[in-house]
Design brief:
Layout lengths: L5 E14 L6 E14 L5 E5 L6 H8 L7 E6 L2 E2 L5 H11 E4 L3 H4 L6 H12 L5 H14 L4 H4 L9 H13 L5 E5 L7 H18 L2 E6 L2 H7 L2 E6 L2 E7 H6 L4 H11 L19 H4 L24 E3 L2 E3 L11
Parallel strand pairs: 3-8, 3-9, 6-7, 7-8
Antiparallel strand pairs: 1-2, 1-4, 4-5, 9-10, 10-12, 11-12
This protein binds adenosine-5'-triphosphate (ATP) and magnesium ion.
Magnesium ion binds next to helix 1.
C-alpha cells in the first residue's frame, strides 16, 4: 500500500477504564496500541475479529468518535479527532463515519414509521433540500440495500422482518454518503439464515458505492467470506493483521491458530468464539504482564510473561509475538 493516501488512520490508539471504582487503582486497557489504516480510492472490508470482552466495541466507539482515545491518534482525511474544532468539524466526521448497530431496533424509534425516519435522516443531513429530494435520497438508499419504498412505506419497525429491518438500518447509515461504515456485530441478532445476505450486502455497498467497511465480529466464518483484510484482537491488542486469506490459511499467532482450529471444528456452532476453546471470562488476562495470551499459549516462553511483544511487520502482515522476533531489544 506504499504511496496510497490514508482515508482513516488509527495509530497506537489506547483507551483504558478504571476497574472497581476510582480508588481501586487498577486499570484495564480495553484498547491497547491499536493501529490500522483504510485507504482512499481503495475501498476495503476490514474485519476486526475477537472474542467477547476483547475491546471491539470500545474500538468501534473510538472510530465513530463517540469516545476519544487516551493516547495515539485517529484521523479521517488527515484530520485528527482530537484536533477537531467546533461542532461543524465533529458533525462532518460523524457524517462520514457511520455506525450500523447490532440491534436494528436501536436505530429506529418504535413509535415512528421507518420511511418517515429515513426521510427525516435525509432532511437532517441535507437541510437545504426539498422534501421530494429527501424522499429520493431515502428511496435510493433503500434500493441500494435491496428494499423498495413500497415495501417499507407506512410501516413501523415491528412490522418489518428482522432481515428487512437490518437492511433498513443499513439504508439509514448510507443516506449521508459516508466514507466509512462501522458495523459492530451487525448480524449477531439476525437469523442465521439471513446472515449471509446481510454480509453480502456489505460487499455490494463496497463495490457499488465505494464505501469502506469496518466489520466487527466474533464470527470467523463471515469475516473470512467477505473481508479483504482482517485483524485479530485479543485483550485490547491487535495480535495479528493482514490479508484475510494469508492470515487464515497460514495463521502465525498462537491465538489466531487456536481460533482457526476451532472454526474448522465440525461441531455445530463452533465457528463462534462465544464458546469452545477460545473463550475465557474475567479481567485477569487483561491485567496480565507481558503477552496477554501467554497464560493460554502452548508456546509461551519466559519472556512472554515479562514484557509485551512488539509488532513484527513482514510485508503486508503484522504479528505481535516473540516467536517471530523482537527478542532482545524489548
Ligand atoms: N465504560 C466502561 N467502563 C469500564 N469498563 C469498560 C467500559 N466499557 C468496556 N469496558 C471493559 O472493557 C473491556 C472491553 O469491552 P468491549 O465492550 O470493548 O468488548 P467487546 O469485544 O465489544 O465485547 P463483546 O463481544 O462482548 O461485545 C471489557 O473488559 C469491558 O468490561
Ligand atoms: Mg461489543
Amino acid at each position: 500500500m506504499g504511496d496510497a493516501i490514508e482515508l482513516l488512520s488509527v495509530k497506537s490508539a489506547k483507551k483504558s477504564f478504571r476497574l472497581g471504582g476510582i480508588f481501586s487503582g487498577k486499570e484495564l486497557i480495553a484498547v491497547n496500541e491499536v493501529s490500522f489504516s483504510l485507504f482512499k480510492d481503495a475501498p476495503d472490508i476490514f474485519s476486526i475479529i475477537g472474542e467477547s470482552g476483547s475491546g471491539k466495541t470500545t474500538l468501534s466507539r473510538m472510530i465513530l468518535r463517540l469516545l476519544l482515545p487516551d493516547s495515539g491518534s485517529i484521523a479521517l482525511d488527515q484530520v485528527d479527532v482530537h484536533s477537531m474544532k467546533g461542532r461543524k468539524q465533529v458533525l462532518e466526521y460523524m457524517r462520514n463515519v457511520q455506525p450500523i448497530f447490532q440491534n436494528p431496533f436501536e436505530t429506529f424509534n418504535p413509535l415512528n414509521r421507518v420511511d418517515e425516519f429515513l426521510f427525516a435522516t435525509a432532511k437532517n443531513f441535507f437541510p437545504g433540500e426539498t422534501v421530494d429530494q429527501a424522499r429520493e435520497r431515502a428511496e435510493r438508499a433503500l434500493n441500494a440495500v435491496g428494499l423498495a419504498l413500497s415495501e417499507v412505506g407506512g410501516r413501523y419497525p415491528h412490522e418489518l422482518s428482522g432481515g428487512q429491518l437490518q437492511r433498513a438500518s443499513v439504508a439509514r447509515a448510507i443516506i449521508p454518503n459516508p466514507k466509512v461504515l462501522v458495523a459492530d456485530e451487525p448480524v449477531s441478532m439476525v437469523d442465521a439464515s439471513l446472515r449471509m445476505s446481510i454480509v453480502n450486502l456489505f460487499q455490494d455497498l463496497k463495490n457499488k458505492l465505494g464505501t469502506s467497511i469496518v466489520y466487527i465480529t466474533h464470527d470467523l466464518a463471515t469475516a473470512y467470506y467477505i473481508s479483504d483484510r482482517i485483524a485479530i484482537i485479543h485483550r485490547g491488542f491487535f495480535v495479528e493483521q493482514g490479508p484475510t486469506s494469508a492470515i487464515l490459511t497460514e495463521p502465525r499467532h498462537p491465538y489466531t491458530q487456536l481460533l482457526v482450529e476451532s472454526a474448522l471444528d465440525p461441531r455445530p456452532g463452533s465457528t463462534s468464539l462465544a464458546d469452545g476453546a477460545a473463550a475465557t471470562t474475567g479481567d485477569e488476562e487483561f491485567l496480565a504482564i507481558g503477552c496477554k495470551f501467554a497464560g493460554r499459549c502452548p508456546k509461551a516462553m519466559v519472556k512472554c510473561r515479562l514484557s509485551e511483544p512488539p509488532e513484527i511487520v513482514d510485508g503486508d502482515r503484522m504479528v505481535r509475538c516473540y516467536l517471530y522476533g523482537g527478542n532482545d531489544e524489548s
